[in-house]
Amino acid sequence: MAEKSRIGVTGLAVMGANLARNIASRGVPVAVHNRTYAKTEQFMADYGAEGDFTASESVKDFVDSLETPRKIIVMVKAGKPVDGVIEELTPLLDEGDIIIDAGNSHFPDTVRRTAECEANGLRFMGVGVSGGEEGALLGPSIMPGGDPAAYEEVREIFESIAAVVDGTPCVTHVGPGGAGHYVKMVHNGIEYADIQLIAEAYDLLTNVVGLDAPAVGKIFEEWNTGDLDSFLIEITGKVLAKTDARTGRPLVDVIVDQAGQKGTGTWTAIDALQLGIPLTGITEAVFARGLSALRSERKAAAGVLAGPTPSKEVDESLVEDIRLALYASKVVAYAQGFAQMRAASVENGWDLKLGEMATIWRGGCIIRARFLNRIREAYDEHPDLDNLLMVPYFTEAVANAQDAWRRVIVKATEQGVPIPAFSSSLSYYDGYRRERGPANLIQGLRDFFGAHTYKRIDAEGSFHTRWAQDGTEVEA
Ligand code: 6PG
């Protein structure tokens, strides 16, 4: 009988196929399976010679080809397909076998599936995997959640396939239950904010400063050598430099300005609203994609709604201001995302180590960036940090950027260029650094119309003013 495989992958679309190839490339025998057998056959024809693969047509043969306790990576579309695979696998598995959902599942589904699998004697892991197709093949960032003992069973394999930064693999056990998929969700939310901020900087550089796409590409290339050094800034330079073969124009100039989305940014924003955590950068990024999608409405409005007359003056001094504004807004987006993870950790009892999250995001994933080292250091020093902005490195970075940040926002507003992520990040910053805001009036109004009570600055307890409708106080 053929030797059993150490791990299985079901779902051989590009992410699953590349993960299977990555694992096999480390000398690990891998069982492969796909709902449509033709895809498995294609996989074997294309990559079968790369490693020790065992391909099966039926789920039963696939399960039988695995050593026990079985470890099965499910890499199918998030949602119902994951439940379908679990349902099919469950009767064929033995107690203690491990089902690993490595797709972009919504974390409440992971919590539910964990309980359902446990009820059937199985172990379930919800694992965030980031890095796109290439990351899956060459080294992703991996965010495993679930039973720590189950993680131990796959740790060696995960550590061997993950990206490595300064000798440290970009994988760690994130926490129990839905913690892994939660952290991946916030990763994607930050990815949305990062991308939106880049798009706003590009908009300003083209429509306010007056540069063309290749020139803006060169600026991003240069920015990538400093504090902004990151995968997304790097690929922005490349995308802007690309010429469209069909027209000879910059490729970005022929791409329709409507952003797609698969939902993870929306989940992050909804979760922040439920937790009561201000998550302005990510949420504005989701809204901006929504506005971009209203293309025909925008086209109609463009000829109707008035805006300022754009100035013809090209102001190259704004380039450095835009860089600083981008950096400061990015710091805010990360501060908000990390504050959200902290709140979720407390809410769910996950005990997330935020410094470790920054560590495993330094390589492999879409938001990999030099400044994650600084975030890691911040949480290593202060594990219970309320807000990243309070760490001297970030306090100073934003203080140094703030004048430029404000200038950019004024200029963009004067010129009618929308910068929702830049400006909402600055508003958050200004709100966060304010000892006394205007919520006193909100409380006064709530008390007026609904007797919702208020607290006083000079006495303990709850107070209510017996308002007469003319604003006077009703005598006792
Ligand atoms: C990753 C990416 C990946 C995917 C996003 C895209 O970490 O590898 O985040 O998960 O590219 O989900 O999301 P949208 O299609 O919603 O932009």
Shape: globular
CATH superfamily of the largest domain: N-(1-d-carboxylethyl)-l-norvaline Dehydrogenase, domain 2
The secondary structure category is alpha/beta
Q: Please give the largest β-sheet.
A: 7 strands, mixed
User: What is the terminal-to-terminal distance?
Assistant: 91 Å
Alpha-carbon Rg, integer: 26 Å
Strands of the biggest beta sheet: in what spatial order?
Answer: 3-2-1-4-5-6-7
Low-confidence stretches: none
- The CATH topology name of the largest domain reads N-(1-d-carboxylethyl)-l-norvaline Dehydrogenase, domain 2
**Helix segment tally:** 20
Mean pLDDT: 97
Give the SSE order as H and E letters. EHEHEHEHEHEHEHEEHHHHHHHHHHHHH
CATH architecture assignment name of the largest domain: Orthogonal Bundle
Counting DSSP E segments of at least 2 residues, the number of strands comes to 9
- The helix content, as a percent range, equals 40-55%
For the record, what CATH class of the largest domain applies? Mainly Alpha
**How many structural domains does the protein architecture include?**
3
DSSP strand content:
5-15%
Function: Catalyzes the oxidative decarboxylation of 6-phosphogluconate to ribulose 5-phosphate and CO(2), with concomitant reduction of NADP to NADPH.
Catalytic activity: 6-phospho-D-gluconate + NADP(+) = D-ribulose 5-phosphate + CO2 + NADPH
Enzyme class: oxidoreductase
Pathway: Carbohydrate degradation; pentose phosphate pathway; D-ribulose 5-phosphate from D-glucose 6-phosphate (oxidative stage): step 3/3
